[in-house]
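Note to self: keep these together.
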Amino acid sequence: MRQRADKHHLVGESHYLPEADLKDKGLSRNSIGLLGSVVVAISTVAPVYTLTGALGPTVHEVGVHMPAIFLVGFVPMLLVAFAYRELSKAVPDAGTSFTWTVKAFGPRIGWMCGWGLVMATIIVLSNLAGIGTSFLYLALGEAFDSDWLRDLDDNKLVHVTTVLVFIAIATAISYRGMQVTKRVQYVLVALQLVVLALFIVLAIGKAAAGDVPTSISFSFEWLNPFGIESFGALTAGLSLSIFMYWGWDTALSINEETAGGPKVPGRAAIISVLFIVVAYLMTGIAALVYAGTGTTGIGLNNDENDNFFATLADPVLGSHLGILMFVAVLASSVASLQTTFIPVARTLLAMSAYEAVPKVFSRVHPRFKTPGFATVTAGVATSAFYTIMTILSEDVLTDTIYALGLMICFYYALTAFSCVWYFRKDLSRSARELLVKGVMPLLGGLMLGAIFLKTLVDVADPDYGDGNQIGGVGSVFVIGVGILVLGAVLMEVMRIKSPAFFRGDVLKRDTPVLVPEED
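Structure:
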């Protein structure tokens, strides 16, 4: 009989016994490897799409210390990625954050963690579709030199219709399975990264040649976070950077479909985070040395430059190649739109399989081996959310996107803390166990928890964001807290309908069983 081995018997390699209560959900096994997982994770982060909207606001908050913010924001992401890696090796389940927090802290905290992930994904899906639509018409206008085509995006009926088409296409690709997803993503991710690399090389090269009036000289001080003038500016920049890194955990959401063993999903997540921070640093430095931090023209502090790459496409790449940047942003947003369906659908699938949400979400397509009902439901919910918000109030839609950072910090921090608690009995085994399962996840969770609380205080200010308020309180605060309160209400409804899950009878709180490899 295999029993839990203590630290005196563990010599060399060891592994975890599979949890008896984990369920096979019928997903396609061994359908994606390490490279595919990395590509899917990078696609979900959407570096080109993210940079075009985030570089300007980040410079507005911290000036030339934008690269330092990218580095500081990278730290909690890397620390949390280690927590994900360790949890995925021990509990390889498509429910990821939901399943792991249930195992560590019980059904209620686990349910709320899953709710936070689902809502963050629904919010960002609508934004991705909206940005993709805007850059589609910008690219068409650039290609045909037509202001009429560019202005089509301002037509609300045309814009919303195009958004719905994008969402429908992305839903259909995700519905058809990981093989189709993988092939599409290889093309879209390669396209955006090639254009981004071309932009970095040309921007730095032209600035170095002295041909750009706005250019400034690179300084290593740009990488120093202690040079940022105020703590408020630092936290504001960090809030932006959290959104910029979000999405790498998609590599863990497909852990039941990954080939190569239980270590591959975690390895893909860490590789993705490392790749993204390098891409952000190089792009940030290239943008600063080329455009500078001025408030006019192409300066990064110019409030009129809503889309950074739209402003710098022609100056950096030239009039003939400038359209490539529009296409790259379009490819980035569309690619991320498709892969972002992966975590929400698989989280709902897992929650349903363990009786935390209605059973209908556990339906898996018999041919494609995908969570078909959950994927279609996410697509319909995103379409309805974006359409209603755009028609009723675009300000509310914008404030909802601002609230996204709260949701991300919420479920990332809970996952990090669940790693520490779940592996608490293993932390004394070795310095390595203490570091990667205890210290690093704890620090990452504390950092994200602090950002969550600080952001919560900031967004309560009626002047935050676009200055909208409800009852004298910032609408971003009301939306963020309202989403969590709504989740708590729905959780109580499910508790009545599914008491077995909330009693802990379906998915049990547990500690991992570690055995020597030779067993």
